[in-house]
Amino acid sequence: MAVLPNKVSPELQDSMFGTLKELFDFPIETKAQTPQEKPVTDGYTSTPFHESLAAGTDSEKSRTFEHHFWPNGNDQYRYGFVYIC
Question: What is the 3-state secondary structure (H, E, C) of 3-71?
């Protein structure tokens, strides 16, 4: 995630980076259920040296992505998606 200085509050940055850590802490089996499609806009992919999760910028795909990982929703993720994406 790229963050422009002075464009995103420190609180929102902390919230989003905390949520990203939480995303990458999910088991590989859970993450693999969101495979990436070409061109890469959303989903999960990994190699021995790289792991990637992408939600894309489409609001419907983002909701699907969110509910895959957090069936009851995740306010921090949703808030960050709305304000950063």
Answer: CCCCCCCHHHHHHHHHHHHHHHHCCHHHHCCCECCCCCCCEEEEECCEEEEECCCCHHHHHHHHHHHCC
